[in-house]
Amino acid sequence: MGWSSPWLCLLWFLFLSLALSYPSSNSSLCHLHESSALLQFKNSFSIDNFPGYAYCGFDEPEAEASNSKTLSWKNGTDCCTWSGVTCDKTGNVIELDLHCSRLLGIIDSNSSLFLLTHLQSLKLSNNDFQGSQISSQFARFTSLKHLNLSYSNFSGQVPVEVSYLSKLLTLDLSINYGVSLDTSTMRKISTNLTSLRVLKICLVDMISVKPHSLMNLSSSLTYLKLRSSYLQGDFPENIFRLPNLQVLDLGWNEILNGSIPNSNWSSPLRKLRLSVTKFSINFSHLAGTLKSLNELYLRNCKFIGSFPSMFVNITKISVLDLSYNNLNGQVPWFYLNLEKLTYLDLSGNNFSGQLPETVANHSNQNSFLYDSSTEQLLGHVPLNLAILDLCDNLLSGRIPSWLYSIPTLEYLNVQGNQFSGSIEEFQYGSLVHLNLGYNKLHGPFPASIFQQVNLRYLRLPGNKLSGVVDLHQFSKLKNLRRLDLSYNEISVSSNNPMDYTLSNILYILELSSCNMSEFPYSLRASETLGYLDLSYNRIQGNIPKWLWNVGKKNLYHLNLSHNFLTNVEQLPWKYLGLLDLRFNLIQGHLPIPPPSTSYFFISNNQLIGELPSLICSLTFIQVLDLSNNNLNGSIPMCLGNLNHLSVLDLKMNMFDGVIPTTLAKGNSLRNINLNGNRLEGPLPQALLNCRNLEILDLGSNLINDTFPHWLESLPMLQVLILRSNNFHGSIDGPNVRLPFQKLRIMDLSYNQFNGRLPTKYFENLLAMVDEHVDKLRYMGENISYSDNGYYQDSVIVTIKGFDMELEKIQNIFTTIDFSMNNFEGEIPELIGNLKGLKGLNLSHNNISGHIPQSLRNLTNLEWLDLSSNELSGSIPMQLIEMVWLEVLNLSQNRLVGAIPRGNQFDSFGKDAFIWNLGLCGFQLSIECDDRDQQPSPSEGDPLEAANEFDWKFAMLMGYGCGLVIGISVGSMLFSDKRLACFIRKVGGEQWIELLRRQKKNKKKKKKDLFTNKIRNQ
């Protein structure tokens, strides 16, 4: 019997009623208590309109302009319709996705978030929770399957309660720099989370975690990421054997050891990252065993096996990173599957030679890479290549044409090679990142660059590109975020009359040394600009007012150095981190940058007036360089209270008064340079609070004090320069305990020190004893502001007889300069232990005795000046072993005998030995007899007899040319005691006084000459 129409209508009505009444994710069934909990959670945060820690980054352009998802949450509306909220069919909130919602605030254990007990997925990533603890209350989410707390500024220990979430499939705690994880919690996570498939603990402090605590990780695990987590010890091999593991990332754990299974191993691994670890890697075995592997990252690793045999079995790999491994030879194109290759990073190696060219195969219309040196086809042109990084190698020749013809190429970086020739035109518009910097490329700017509509990063610095480039052409590149044309031979023009502006998302603009004569007006609408470098141009006058609005909320780096600016009226940028105005013509009083500034350079200008105490409002300042100006007055005492200040460079000004005495305990000062001012008074003992001090340069001032023995307790001090002051007294004190063990430069010249040379210091200057260094470094290079190193430690020292400014201080440079003082006594034999010394200057003192034979041990010495002393005896023959010696000065002493022959000594001229009337040798055009050639000790004092003979000769000169000249010559050959006795007999006490005055005036004249020279620089 058929159904009648009324029955059908009734059934249809009942069906619709049930369907409409059944809960769905789109129904307005949000529970009131959960809606209230969400609103309360929202109201506990503010929205960060200038995100810092939790910024979503440039790789998510859709997120850059997005608003917080919580802005759609309104009271009285259904919470299941709110952005980021998902409900089940019963109205329970089961998913909360607040990724990149700009939340700023604290999540504590009382947060209403923990009332959402039905949650199955919680994503709080990319927010700023300001150091909130990861609460144990997360354990209330017993149904949770997905938990993502990454990049949200949590801190503290990961609570063990996280291991109670037994249903978790994914757990991501990555990039929370303040979070740490211990072995006990890690072991429980491994043991209890048996369903876990994805585990990411990247950039979390796992330094206390023992790798064996990972042994029981879930066999369901498909993705394990422990990168940059300070893991150390031996990584368990069984992790590689997990049956479902497809992605393993252990990279950037620098002291993590381990090895890959060598036998009975098959794995579904598709992606393996072991970069910057200490894994022992048998490359050929690895590539032969992992049949499914298509992504391999081995940056900065050590390989077992010879090159190129390691490349034999990697033909299935499409993503390969072998960067920074000291590989050499030709790029191994032959061993790569060029048809599948999409990502190749060989940067930071020693690959050399030219890249292959292409040759056409007419039978199938395909092109192949061709190595002309071996006449060998290497494979198909890699037409699927998206990323190619060959930077920092030794590659040369032209950039081959096939690189300009890859339709999929998005990232090309060949910076830091020796490529030459012109840049050809790119055939496709696929480029996103192009870096051809620091090669030898020349010719015009390629027009096809302006057709790359997706281009975001363009870097061409350090080449020889020529011609005129109009900035208005870059207005076509709407996605451009970084533009660097610095250090070429181009002229950048911004005079085009068209009303154009550069990309409104431009963040970094580098136009250093681009022959610009004015500020580029096309910047006027660049509100997002954060980094602007217009240094080494010809821009003159004032900073225009329209520039004040450029990057007003974002600009953190402004470099206008090496121009012709004359005035700086205003610095309106609130978030400025670096301001560089060095080498301009800026006049008037010192402009004060905003309080956010960490690096302020305004040296080599024409500033006048006093340094205002407002400078101490720069509470974040790390480097303050005001050197080479005309600033005067006293140095503000408050500078000593700036806790972050690392470098204080006020050299070559006219500051007077005393050195600040309010140097706070725990300060960060590493370099204090006050050279070339008018500072006076004693050294403040507050310097002892500078426990990080490496460089102290107080040269060319008016400081009046005794030698500061107490500075020896500064544990990091490497450079001590007290030259050209009024220091006096003895150095070799009885209380020396920790004698400057790291000191490498010690300059006490042009003072009034006296007494014996400091034997205890020579014995314990350990940094000068070691002649070997592991790697050539420069002081301060590890704390430079950027890759270019904006501040370089520099000091003025005497090198090989010339006053020179060391613009960089190498860790192999060691020198002692005690010249122009009143030291007396003998040169200690212990000085021969300082095998690392490059220079030794003890000239213009009253040092007597013989030249110690131990100087032969100073095999690294390049200059030695012992002139204008009272040294006697012969020149030790052993000194010819100082094969690196380039400059020698032994003049104006009482040396006798033959000048040694051989090695460097044959190259020294007359000036090195003049005014030693007992010396002979071809340098002085005085022949030596047999006695002179082989001086030997005999009974009595033959030297005294020789001196008496030379003195009689000198006195004959005195009678012929005047007694004063005779006394001057005789004083170089006669001891003070005998000379004084003789002069009293001849001329009385007035001649004694005359001689003393003459020596004193001579020394003072040299000191004054040096001081004036420094002040006039």
CATH superfamily of the domain at 694-908: Ribonuclease Inhibitor
Number of strands: 67
Terminal-residue CA separation: 117 Å
* CATH-assigned fold name of the domain at 694-908: Leucine-rich repeat, LRR (right-handed beta-alpha superhelix)
Beta content comes to 15-25%
Helix content: 10-25%
What spatial form do the alpha-carbon principal axes imply?
globular
Q: CATH class of the domain at 694-908, anyone?
A: Alpha Beta
Mean pLDDT: 84
SS content category: alpha/beta
Number of helices: 12
Biggest sheet layout: 32 strands, mixed
Poorly predicted sequence stretches spanning 5 or more consecutive residues = 13-27, 57-65, 784-789, 934-992
Task: Tell me what the CATH architecture of the domain at 694-908 is.
Answer: Alpha-Beta Horseshoe
What's the alpha carbon Rg, rounded to whole Å? Answer: 38 Å
How is this structure best described in words?
This protein has 1017 residues and is α/β, with parallel strands linked by helices. Among the domains are: 694-908, Ribonuclease Inhibitor (Leucine-rich repeat, LRR (right-handed beta-alpha superhelix), Alpha-Beta Horseshoe); 947-1015, no CATH class. It is 13% helix and 23% strand. It is built from twelve helices and 67 strands. The strands form eleven sheets. The protein has a 32-stranded mixed β-sheet, with no helix packed on it. A seven-stranded parallel β-sheet has the order 20-22-27-29-31-33-35, with no helix packed on it. A seven-stranded parallel β-sheet has the order 54-56-60-62-64-66-67. Helix 9 runs antiparallel to helix 10 and helix 11 packs across helix 12 (989-1015). The chain is globular and about 110 Å long. Residues 13-27, 57-65, 784-789 and 934-992 have low confidence and may be disordered.
